[in-house]
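Homework help board

Subject: predicted structure for assignment chain

Our instructor gave us this sequence and asked us to write out the predicted structure in C-alpha cell form, then describe one feature. I got the C-alpha cells but I'm not sure how to describe them. Can anyone check?
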Amino acid sequence: MSRLLSAFSGSGLMARVLRSASWLMVGYGGSQALRLAANLIMTRLLFPEAFGIMTLVTVVIVGLSLFSDVGVGPAIAQNPRGDDPDFLNTAWTIQVFRGCMLFAVACLLTIPVARFYHEPDLVKYLPVGALALLVSGFFPTRIETAHRHLLVGRLTVLDLASQVIGIGFMVIYAELTQSVMALALGGVVTAVAKLILTHFLLPGPVNRFRWERAAADDLIHFGKWIFLSTALTFVISQGDRAILGRYLSIDMLGIYNIGYFLGSFPMMAGLSMIGRIMIPVYRDKPPAENATNRRHLSRLRAGMSLSIGLALLLMAAIGPQLVGLLYDERYQLAGPMVTLIALSFYPRLVILTYDNVALAMGDSRSYFIVMMVRAVLQILWILLGLAYFGLVGGIVSMALATIASYPAVVWLARKYGAWDVRHDIVAVLTGVLATGLILWMHWADIALLAGY
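My C-alpha cell output:
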C-alpha cells in the first residue's frame, strides 16, 4: 500500500500521470453514470423517436465542431509557450470567433439537414442544440492549462457538477412537457453551467481578447493539419450515425444510439483519458530517446489496453442481458447492438495512443495522413457492410476498417520509435479468441438483429 501511495505522490511525471489518469477515469466514469441514469429516466418519459431526432442533432453539432477544430487544446498542450498569457489569450480569441461562426453555420444548415434526413422537426431542435457551440467558445483556456500540467482534479469536479445541473434541468423539463426540446436544451444548460463554474472556480488568469501575431502564426501553423484531421475524426466517430440516419427509421436510429452508448462506453472512457495524458507523456519522454522511455511507455500502454480491453469484452458479453435489465421491450434490439459495437471497438486497442505521439512531436501533418486513411476506409467499409449485410454488416465493418488501417498507423508509430509489436500481437490474439466465444454465446440475438 505504501508503494502504491508513493507512486501517486510527488510532482514527477509518472505521479502526475497516475493522478490525472485516476481523476479522468473518475470524471468520465461519473459522467457516463450520470448520462446512463438520465438516459434511463428519459426513455421512460419520452419515446424512441425522440432519441433518433437528437442523434441527428448531435451528428450535426459534433460534425460542425470537428470540421472546424483548429487544435487549440493540443496546441496549448505541446507548445513551449503554452503558459504564456499572450499565447493563451490569442488562442481564446480564436476559440470565441469559432464558436460564434459554428452557431451561425448550424442555423444556416437547419433546413437543408431537415430535408436530407426527411425529418422536419430538426428545424426546431437543431438551432437550440447549436447554442451549446456558441457557449463553449467562451470556455476559459484554464481548462487546457490544467490538462497541460496534468492537474485535473478540480476540473473533473466542475465538469461533473455542470452535468448534474444540465441533467436535472432536462429531466424536470421532460417531466413537465414530454417534449424532445428537453434533450436539446439539456446540452445547452450543461455548457452554460460549465462556463460559469470554470470561470469563477478554476484558478488562473481571466482570458481577454488578444491577437498576437506570433502566437496566431504558431496556432494556425499547428492547427491547419488538426483542422483537416478533426474533420476526418467526425467521419470516424460519427460517420456510422450520419449514414444510418438515412438507412434506418428514426425510432430504430434512437435504439441504435442507445446501443452505441453502452457498447462504446469502455473505449470512449479510455480515449478521454489517453487523449489528455499521452501528449504530455510523449512530449516529456519521447520513445525514440532511450530504451528506458520505451519500456515505461510499453508498460503504460499495456495497462491501458488491459483495462479497456477487459471492459469492452465484458460489455460485449453482457450486452443483451444489460439492456433487458435496464430498458423496456421497445429497446431490446439494442442488446445485440451492444455486443457487436463493443467487439467492433476492440481492434482499436491495437492502435491505441500511436496517433498521440505525432501530436506530441508537433507533427500534425503525419497525424492528418493517418486520420485520412482511417476515415476513408471506415466510410468505404460501412457502405459495403450495409449494402451486403444490412445493419449487422454496417456495425462489424467498423472493426474491419480499423484492421485495414493498421499499416498506416504502424508507419506513424515507427517514425517516432513508438511501435510496440509485442503489445499488438498479444492484443490481437486475445481479441480473436474472446470475440469467437462471445459471438457463439449471443448468436441467436445477433441473428434476430440481422433479420430486422
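Reply (TA_rk): Your C-alpha cells look well-formed. For the description, you could write something like this. The chain has a mean pLDDT of 83. That's the kind of observation they're looking for.
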